[in-house]
Design a protein that fits this description.
Layout (H helix, E strand, L loop, with lengths): L1 H7 L2 H24 L10 H24 L9 H20 L11 H5 L15 H26 L7 H6 L11 E2 L3 E2 L2 E2 L3 H26 L2 H18 L4 H27 L1 E2 L6 H14 L5 H20 L4 H15 L3 H25 L2
Antiparallel strand pairs: 1-4, 2-3
Helix pairs in contact: 2-8, 3-8, 3-10, 3-11, 3-12, 4-6, 4-10, 6-10, 8-10, 11-12, 11-14, 12-14
Length: about 375
């Protein structure tokens, strides 16, 4: 057991992870729930929601880094898997509204407005938490498996068109407005501070669990084969490995992780619509990984935090300049930080270590 833990991280790595866990599970709850709102140390609901949302994005960035950084598969459609998980859980949240909607009927308002008399087939059993939780995993995973199977076997490249389905009112997913106005989860009001903090803590736990799972994969024999596929797939095939199986597994796992992140995102943000499936969102996911450091795992988390923290600021202070800033950030990182922020930190650390060793060596020279 000890060797398994040491394989994942050294003492410093586990200490850093413990510190992060302490912030998520102790500091934030205390400052949000235990400190009065008038206190300068109080963490507001805004910050709880913002950090919770960024943690969901960080899970997606980890999923992207797992396939791009370690398997060499750049996906420009991962936003689709994120949105599918959000929609799957959003159906349950819409059913939890019950008769508290504008029309006071036990159907979502958009269905009442369209004069629907019964739920469409895809809403079957959507009032069950566990059924929808299963859909969060199965729907993105199954779609990724089928797409990946044909893509990796025949090297077919393509784009996703599923968002067109969700824009149509007739398909029962709320059209371009999507799902919103959520009230409860497991019959517990979402708007209460305790519920918000619970969702925040669950997101943090899933983020840490995803990081450990990804770390376990990339440090295993399976991960070494993935890296070899990334660097020289033909040689790996020549050695007798079926590279399709390896890529298909990590691709499907990555999609499932995105779906789980989408399910955690929806109740915290309060809305899910087809815009989450847009190619621009998927490209932005790749930018998070590039900014943080591709092939480092932690870099995905850092990149998601940096980009979305900046996005939160710019979209409030200078909304018209956000896309320009994002493009500039990507260009600067490509030119000056080709290995991302984590790579740059590592290079600085290595230079300082060499400088210390050099000074120590010169100091000992007679």
């Amino acid at each position: 057991m000890g060797s398994a833990f040491s394989r994942l991280y050294g003492p410093k790595g586990w200490a850093a992870l413990g510190a992060v866990a302490c912030v998520i599970f102790v500091v934030f709850p205390l400052l949000n729930l235990g400190v009065p709102a008038a206190s300068p140390f109080h963490v507001s609901a805004y910050w709880v929601t913002l950090v919770g949302k960024i943690m969901c994005y960080a899970i997606v960035a980890l999923a992207m880094d797992l396939i791009w950084g370690y398997a060499g598969i750049l996906s420009l459609g991962h936003g689709l898997f994120f949105a599918l998980g959000g929609y799957a859980f959003g159906m349950y949240l819409m059913r939890q509204i019950g008769s508290d909607g504008q029309y006071r009927q036990n159907m979502p308002d958009f269905m009442v407005f369209l004069d629907w008399k019964e739920f469409p087939w895809q809403w079957w059993s959507s009032d069950s938490f566990w059924w929808c939780a299963m859909l969060v995993v199965v729907v993105p995973g199954l779609l990724a498996f089928v797409f990946g199977y044909f893509a990796f076997r025949s090297r077919v490249k393509g784009v996703y068109a599923a968002m067109l389905l969700f824009f149509r009112n007739a398909t029962g997913f709320g059209g371009n407005n999507g799902f919103t106005d959520f009230r409860r989860i497991l019959d517990i009001p979402i708007a209460t501070p305790q519920a918000r903090m619970t969702l925040f803590a669950v997101s943090g736990a899933v983020l840490i669990g995803t990081l450990l799972l990804a770390r376990w994969i990339v440090t295993s024999r399976f991960g070494r084969v993935l890296a070899a596929i990334r660097d020289a797939e033909q040689r790996v095939m020549f050695c007798g490995y079926n590279t399709v199986h390896y890529k298909l597994f990590v691709w499907t796992l990555s999609a499932v992780l995105c779906g789980i992140a989408g399910a955690l995102y929806v109740p915290q943000v309060g809305i899910i619509n087809p815009s989450e499936m847009s190619p621009a969102n998927s490209i932005e996911i790749a930018i998070w990984v590039a900014v943080g450091g591709r092939g480092t795992l932690v870099g995905g988390i850092v990149g998601a935090g940096i980009v979305n923290g900046a996005k939160s600021f710019f979209t409030q202070a200078f909304p018209e300049f956000w896309l320009y800033f994002l493009g500039l950030l990507f260009i600067l990182v490509t030119l000056f930080l080709p290995h991302g922020v984590i790579g740059a930190v590592g290079q600085i650390r290595d230079k300082l270590r060499v400088r210390r060793l050099t000074r120590a060596t010169l100091g000992k020279t007679p």
